[in-house]
Specification:
The protein is α+β, with helices and mostly antiparallel strands and about 625 residues long. It is about 40% helix and about 20% strand. It has a six-stranded mixed β-sheet, with no helix packed on it. It has a five-stranded mixed β-sheet with strand order 15-16-17-19-18. A four-stranded mixed β-sheet has the order 1-6-7-4, with helices on one face.
Length: about 625
Amino acid sequence: MKKLLIILPLLILLSCNQDLKNPKDAVIAAPISSIDPHSFSEPALAKVTHLDLKLNVNFDQKKLNGEATWTIQQNGDPGEIIFDTNGLNIEKVLLDDETKNAFYALGDEEKFLGKPLSIQILANTKKIHIFYSTSKDAEALQWLNPQQTAGKKLPFLFTQSEAILARTWIPCQDSPSIRFTYDADITVPKELLPLMSAVNPQEKNQTGTYHFIQTHPIPSYLMALAVGDIAFKAIDKRTGVYTEPVMLNKVTYEFADMGKMVNTAEKLYGDYRWGRYDILVLPPSFPFGGMENPMLTFATPTVIAGDRSLVSLVAHELAHSWSGNLVTNATWNDFWLNEGFTDYFERRIVEELYGKEEAKMQEVLGYNSLKALVTEMGETNPDTRLKADYTDRNPDDAVSDIAYEKGYFFLKHIENIVGREKFDAFLNNYFSENAFKSMTIDQFLEELNTKLIKGDEGLKKQINSYAWVYQPGLPKDFKSPISAEFSKIDSLQKIWQSANNPKGLSKEINSTNEKLYFINTLPNQLSIDKMNALDQEFNFTDSHNAEIQGAWYIQAVKSNYQKAYPAMKEFLINVGRRKFLMPIYKELSKTPEGKKLAQGIYQEARPNYHSVAYNSIDALLK
């Protein structure tokens, strides 16, 4: 039915107006893909296999313009191929070596999804050339003026394509179920350096045009581009860091263990398949902790604490090189297959490098965060299931501790039952056999049943996949993890509160994880005197550790500790990471005075945020 809906208007165009100047002005209606509810594409009929991308980066106009040439594969003679677009200006389309414009049409706009682009093709069509430009407000793109960078001299651009924002800067089949290789030629101002999720240059050239190659098939959400005053420094033969020159020494020190992490990951789950593993530390407006773009993780500067205490983020993004990039969730309703696996893998890396207790502390912090979220959402809320359904909703809403932590604890639960050695063998096989493929939850459960459970009804009952995947909340027989270090902090909490004197606590509570646990287990409301005493002992308000700041400012709002408010305001204005922003704005919004304060800060801060962040906060503070 879909084919008829789209081809019919094109046939009318052909029969009624052979001299039509602007076929793009035709409006069509297309139902959403039956495979992926967040994509218009129909890969069963025609899909892309390779992209040749040519783009010019125009900072004055804040847009990209160029040509996306797609190599395609047809099944039969579908007569059309469908791409996802959102806000793109499609200038013309050519087929293969033809110079005559091909017929195409843009469909009705759908909330979150943009418009389908239907292109009429022939049975022998191999390549499609789409000439286009981006809009000034393309949601994937953040254009930063020099003052928004660390160097303060040159502008910066970065993309964030996950979940469905690649379609705002490239016309593509924007589904994680569709993978393709790519080559790209990117032209930028000569004083700047571009980088992509591909083989990257390590220094600027004299022409301003750079060529990129990605030989492994990736989904569209892993397309990435950054352009700025960027320098490189190697960590070892296959790892290194990119960042603004003024940040380079700090970043290099912070990520000194990158090479060790890659080696450790390989020992756990097989060869690293991507060649180099580099990290680009972006300006502070980046909305996430990290983005696992192949070969080049994008990272937030909020992990640069000066003491390497937050580098577990590197372990997480590196782990995505297997769980996510190598084996990918087929749709955003299968999101936990990316993030739950990655949390599990991350903690295994941390355990190998930094010890069992460090991994256990992260596990307890994750559990407490998950438990609080389930309580907030409601234990019967269907969004607390691993088998999610974000049809007709923005898939960015799926980014929560349900996918990350509930997914992690399901896998940890399986490990506890079958034993680590057996589970590791299963995971190694899973990554190897499904490399460069996309998986649904049902496909994963089928592999679990056939390759691990193997018809053992007792084991199947113990694992109880149905309760973890298809039911909301947490299984009733789930036991919370325990950390010996955190148990000591529980005792210290009782002692200082009864004595009303925290002096000396900072000698007992040292690491970032210990401080986070301590802050998060404080009573919801403390007296100003107690807050002040804690601040004097730990200097939480003026901490340079973003994790500590984020937790402490929430506690400050709960206790109306206004001494921390100026630092909190500066934090909210200068940090764009949604993980920190949303909880603080949410806590402020619980009272009329707090919401007024939040709205005032947000008015000043919003220009510094990426669309992924401000779309969420807009809805919260409206």
